[in-house]
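Could you join me in thinking about how sequence relates to backbone shape in a protein? Would you write everything just below, so we can both look at the same thing?
***
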Amino acid sequence: MNLTKSKIITAIIIFVLSFLIHFGYDVFPNSISALFFPVNESIWEHMKMLYTSIILGGLFDFLIMKKFKIDFNNFFLSLYISATTSIPIFLIVYLPFYYKIGSKMILNIIVLIITIIISQVINYFIQKRNNIDILNTVSIALIIINYVILGYLTYHPIRNEIFFDHMDEKYGINTYRLTSQEPNH
């Protein structure tokens, strides 16, 4: 086993975790799980699903690399950067198609796979670099800060298309339905 094979296995784990995490809030509906799992069907909440899947997949990756004694560096830095960059990567690839043809399950899955692969390539190259201790330490705090931001935006979403759940006609974790006073989407 080498670092490349570890990343391939991790990409598969992240893909599977994405499906499990998608339903995490439905299974465990509380304020803690709302920080990690999508609370509605908005595009933004699915970015939280992607981020969490990559973070958890990275922990599996760490166990694989330790078990098979694979040399790697910059674990937390690579985890932070690959998880964080996955959000704009997904949005850049997905949104033009979404605005052209709407939400389609096959499109969502294809873009998810592409994003996961890119995130693992980024992860691989960062782990091959020389160790940067200070950035690894800072990255732990940045992962936590990202969850604070994701949680804040779950409870206080921005009123725009990316944060709007068209299925339930709501933003964020709110349980109310929109009234006619809300802008049309």
